[in-house]
Fold these 2 entries.
Entry 1:
Amino acid sequence: MVRAIVGANWGDEGKGKITDMLAKESDIIVRFQGGSNAGHTIINNYGKFALHLLPSGVFYDHTTSIIGNGVALNIPYLINEIDSIVERGVPKPHILVSDRAQILMPYHVLFDTYEEARLAGKSFGSTKSGIAPFYSDKYAKIGIQVSELFDEAVLKEKIEGICETKNVLLEHLYHKPLLDPAELFETCCQYRDMIEPYVCDVSAYLYDGIRAGKTILLEGQLGSLKDPDHGIYPMVTSSSTLAAYGAIGAGIPPYEIKDIITVVKAYSSAVGAGAFVSEIFGEEADELRRRGGDGGEFGATTGRPRRMGWFDAVATRYGCRIQGATEVAFTVLDVLGYLKEIPVCIGYEIDGEVTKDFPATIKLEKAKPVLTTLPGWNCDIRGIKKYEDLPENCKNYIEFVEKEIGVRISMVSNGPGRDDIIMR
Ligand code: GDP
């Protein structure tokens, strides 16, 4: 049985927490896209962790954690992340890395940094983790696959070719030091030795796992609105954030994904540039940011303050539809407990017309939010375990959102911890 856990919004919905929680009853957890550019915050009996590349299931000793072929694999980053959790008392996790995953190289980080600097005020707000240059190279067919690390002749020739084109850009566009093929080859040899113990034919492993009736979780990074095709292009990430891509990025048949748990946040937050219709500013935003998530809404990778907004029913309904949500986990609801009234965005006004359909970016940039206001519950709901025990106005908020998005809310998260969950 394969379940995907993905985001309906701009990321930071709390997928890490839901994955960590569901990993308890799972055998295998797979990252299928993205890289170390976004973080998942997880709080459990070992402490508080910000994971970037490891799947959020690494805290149990019965699980296997997999880096699928769709991931941007930063090898030293992965090894450091493994070491850092082991140092804090987590049992050494069982980790497998796809032999078809491609390697994020130091020059991807450099190109990301140089390009953001070149674009200056028009930059994408990249985390400078090398993700866009990595995926560009993958599709330009000059990426390096894990399996290629083990063939020195192939590797040498490939690196020569890479340096030829990259060095033209470094010299003439960025005016930066050139790449040295010998040095890159040396780096790749070090990477090979670091990754060797983990390398596996992941799709074959998962195929056997599915046939043996294992429970498999696919953990997505970011959310629907950051998908390069269906999100707010070009202010998106460079790999698909959708459950459908889970099949490709893990290497399993699409029909095996039976359940798509789509994580929806009770208010909105976003990092990076791009249209954000229900965005709020000033003191109103500062207060929500300060109270949001667990200890404030600041990027897990960069520490940047996140942009804040009210719940956006238009974006979220679309985000759920494009994920193919079969159920919704509604998160960080406890954070809204300070409000007497809660604004919610229920439509977009574009050129004088109100719509409930999420448009392509060019139109989205003209959209103004149509807001309605729901009564708040104005109390702390942390610690509540049963849906019936929630305040009336809180249940009304949940049921209003459920109706707007058209997907059953099966879980309500009312705190950052593993056990802060209400099953419905
Ligand atoms: P992810 O990338 O989707 O895994 O999300 P992040 O980990 O970046 O952001 C979620 C943040 O909210 C983290 O700091 C979590 O600890 C926290 N969090 C998750 N669920 C809840 C919740 O229900 N209530 C509160 N207060 N915080 C939560």
Entry 2:
Amino acid sequence: MTAPTPRWISNFVDGHFVEPDERQGFDAIDPATGLVHARVHEAGAPLVDRAVRAARRAVPGWSATPVRERTEVLRRAAALIEERFEEFVAAEVADTGKPVTQARELDVARAVANFRTFADVVAAAGQESFMTDLPGGRQALNYAVRKPLGVVAVIVPWNLPLLLLTWKVAPALACGNAVVVKPSEETPGTAALLAEVLADAGLPAGAYNVVHGFGSGSAGEHLTAHPGIDGVTFTGSSATGAQVMRTVAPRVRPVSFELGGKNAAVVFADADLDEALDGLTRSVFANTGQVCLCTERVYVQRAVFADIADGLAERARALRLGRPADAATTTGPLISQAHREKVRGYAALAEQAGATVLTGGGVPALGDGLDGGSWFEPTLWTGLDNTARPVREEVFGPVAALIPFDTEEEAVALANDTAYGLAASVWTRDLRRGHRVAQAMEVGVAWVNTWFLRDLRSPFGGMGLSGLGREGGDASLHFYTEPTNVCVQL
Ligand code: NAD
Ligand code: 6OD
């Protein structure tokens, strides 16, 4: 019996899927099984050029479309994603191996929310104006007119593919831009489905284009190096962000970077320990630790260190690795064999540095057709300090180091002792201390007694190696538009 021919995932340019070219194809692998589930058409430089030109042609008409009509297109897109909800879930699960429950509750649900929220934000947006007093009693009126950037290159990673894509595409389109998106080579599926939905919602041809491929020497670099783009919004690793910045620098285009993290949780002895343990379990192991906001450093006040270490290890052991479609599965595989090798490398480094492995540390034997997948056990270490590489470098897997502290000052110093600055969470019943410590965290996003709670109107982004700029609410309006200030002497 021959294996079934995998379906193609094609590029989408100027309102049409482009006929795939067998010579320029790569495999999409299901990380749960290691099996090929689709072939992906890699866009070469000429196709990326066609996509950027199509986007340029779309900008004048789309940006001149009244805001009410533009936001209606976004609302229809949200409704169409809801209609095709299970197709999006299936595509996301095929690419990532994540549990269907998570794809439903987080990934696809957030795509809907992203379109609705940014329709609301743009519909409600006003303009800045200032009245200037001049000598002799005259005045001048200043007002800023916001115009779309033009063609925005949107480059996203594989961990929350649709969530992170729509987090950028929705505000970019709402502001009147056209986009050329480059999904991760690991997760091409939902960006292609979104093309169908946006076309059905009434988005004009050319306003949303998808080019598939890799980074250097492939679609990612062709896109960021293209002279026809007016800005780049990028989510991915800090190293790639720096590379994209170098590529874009000669043409001085605006960039928005959401990059890596090495996020801390600080647990004080007065915390509600059950609540903290539930929150830590999510923040360390959600999406198999593959969320930029995941906690990889847990600082625990010494009096409760053993309780937190034992409780978290017990909860980690209770996680269920298994088939994504199984409702009992809580935890999926890592994205690829290559990524698992990276995570295993850090596990080996932790043990060489003297870590005690509280739980996990290796590759599970799951059977059930899953042993070709890229699975890794939920893993906790004690006995490391802030100098160890697994505590300093982003692992992006289901791992965390637990480290004791004595005083609030020490906890703040330990948490801030990092080159990253994305997120932190603080667990305490003392509200004043909660505010004080959260404000002292050198990060873009700090939580008190929770994690990953998001209001999409609030600014999101990171400091240091974690990024440049903010998106969300008004911050997105500011990135996806350019103001012209008009000054009128009255
Ligand atoms: P990555 O940097 O390897 O790739 C991200 C995207 O950039 C992919 O689409 C990739 O093909 C593309 N790319 C790679 N090289 C490129 C180049 N030279 N030019 C243009 N495009 C290029 O990241 P990843 O492994 O896909 O994702 C994991 C990383 O993303 C982690 O570091 C994680 O912390 C980070 N991340 C950050 C956030 C955030 O909001 N701060 C969110 C999710 C993920
Ligand atoms: O919630 C968001 O808006 C967001 N950008 C999350 C990023 C998660 C990183 O993996």
